Amino acid sequence: MHNIAHNTLEKLESMRQEALLGGGSQKIDDQHRKGKLTARERIDLLLDEGSFEEFDQLKTGRARPETGTREFPGDGVITGHGTIDGREVFVFSQDFTIMGGSLGEAHSQKICKVMDHAVRVGAPIIGLNDSGGARIQEGVESLAAYGEIFSRNVMASGVVPQISCIMGPCAGGAVYSPAITDFTFMVDQSSYMFVTGPNVVKTVTHQEISAEDLGGAAVHNQKSGVAHFALPNDILCLREVRRLINYLPSNNRQRPPIINLRDPAERVDPALDYLVPANPNQTYDMKILITSILDGAEFMEIHPHFARNIICGFGRLGGQTIGLIANQPAVLAGVLDSLASVKAARFVRFCDAFNIPLVCLEDVPGFMPGPEQEHGGIIRHGAKLLYAFVEATVPRLTVIIRKGYGGAYVVMNSKHIGCDINFAWPTAEIAVLGPKGAAEIIYRKEINESPDPAQTLARKTDEYRQMHANPFLAAKQGFIDDVILPHETRHRLIRSLQFLEGKQVNQPPRKHGNIPL
After folding, report:
1. Is 382 one of the catalytic residues?
2. CA neighbours within 13 Å on the CB side: how many for 46?
3. In contact, 348 and 356? CB cutoff 8 Å
4. How much helix, strand and coil, in percent to the nearest 5, is found in the chain?
5. Active site annotation includes 172
6. Of 210, 209, 213, 224, whose CA–CA distance to 178 is shortest?
7. Full 3-state SS string of 295-357
8. Quick check: 208 pLDDT over 90?
9. Which of 103, 259, 267, 434 is the most buried (most CB within 10 A)?
């Protein structure tokens, strides 16, 4: 009897050893040579030390003699749960050393199991993708397996935070899982995403293009907006994921964690009184204001390389996580265009889904003019941002720093679309048009009939600026709750967030709205 028990223990031990080796030491060396960590090394870096509990370590796919595939313990993915700074998260990490991390039936079942657990217990799900794609040897079963994962991504959306790290190839149908998740991280030079690879592109369009140029980290962070973060290597990437998790609640029923950075709410920054230049055509960097008002000057920017005319990201005010949206006058004068609208709209909807208050810092001269924008659907895209703000029921605050012109003023979380508290700096200019454009229209006859039209226009522009380029008309109408001194901004926002903590909104019953996608 003792012998049998001993044999089974030995067998378990040897099966575990085989599972831990993945595709074997040769393949592990190949992975390291490419500058990539193995699936297990990544989990160890992502999670608190010693916290990882693995599921399905011994689960195997079906061996298929006809295609020469054998069984591997784990089937090319490592799944389980652990903690990040003591908070529970679920993880799957694809193992490129086993059949190129390709996705088969057993592989998918393992991923689906942790996703189901994550939704049931209300904890974030983090996917580390490094896979050659569908396991062709399994045929249509591997496609069915993708569908199972996609369905779960959609059902978990807005219930628990979903984060994807692309740490190797991610091609074909596989790209649609990260696309549904909330945030996507990519690693420079070692990760890429595309629906059709360079070979198919060459066959169909006769274009020669490298994987990096077709779908590398730079492309998706700067041009397509598919990825939110690009980091130089696996280690820094996983560290940033840990940092992001610290801003977020574990699920949509919770508030984000309160983290006290010991930064007094009353702290003032006198330099802010001189941030906005006297000349309205001169620019300044909005990030100076952002880091000045946030706790500990800590700001985690989302999509920092995409649509840089708008800034989105997480910070803290009085220990509380906030989602911050700000126009960036230093890029394209801070105008709203199609890309900026879509970037901000998705960020606003994420914050609303996860009970994160929204703070808007506004300096917007309008929507970007021109046939390119109009033909590219700026009406539809701008409407997404408008829709996202109106739909959001979390506390909403806006500070108008300088320009708030036209429709863009309304869309940027104004009082008229349900913002809770609106402040303006004394430098705020709230008007239907900029002073020059307004003067040209209102005083057209007078300007055209004068002996020196240019001088008359300049005089009328100046008159209009003095009359309208200030926040006082809007304050008199009650569209602004208060005109505040720049150095008080931090304190006023923190106090407003405190009183808005119990905010509740009753919405009409409906299945869901129809956002102008």
Report:
1. no
2. 30
3. no
4. 45, 20, 35
5. yes
6. 224
7. HHHCEEEECCCCCCCEEEEEEEECCEEEEEEEECCCCHHHCECHHHHHHHHHHHHHHHHCCCC
8. yes
9. 103
Per the annotation, the verdict on 407 as an active-site residue is yes
**296 is known as an active-site residue:** no
The single residue of 19, 106, 388, 408 carrying the catalytic annotation is: 408
Task: Compute the average pLDDT of residues 193-221.
Answer: 91
pLDDT digits over 408-434, tens only? Answer: 989 899 899 999 999 999 999 888 888
Cβ(341)–Cβ(385) under 8 Å? yes
Q: How is domain 2-247 classified at the CATH fold level?
A: 2-enoyl-CoA Hydratase; Chain A, domain 1 (3.90.226)
Predicted confidence at residue 63, as pLDDT, reads 66
- Name residue, tokens 């992502």: 46
| The CATH number fitting domain 270-433+471-499, selected from 2.40.100.20, 1.10.10.10, 3.90.226.10, 3.90.550.10 | 3.90.226.10
Question: How many Cβ atoms sit within 10 Å of the Cβ of residue 34?
Answer: 10
Question: Which residue out of 122, 158, 173, 225 is catalytically annotated?
Answer: 173
Question: Residue 423 has which token pair?
Answer: 């402040």
What crossing angle do the helices spanning 140-156 and 105-121 adopt, rounded to 10°?
A: 10
Higher per-residue confidence, 58 vs 490: 490
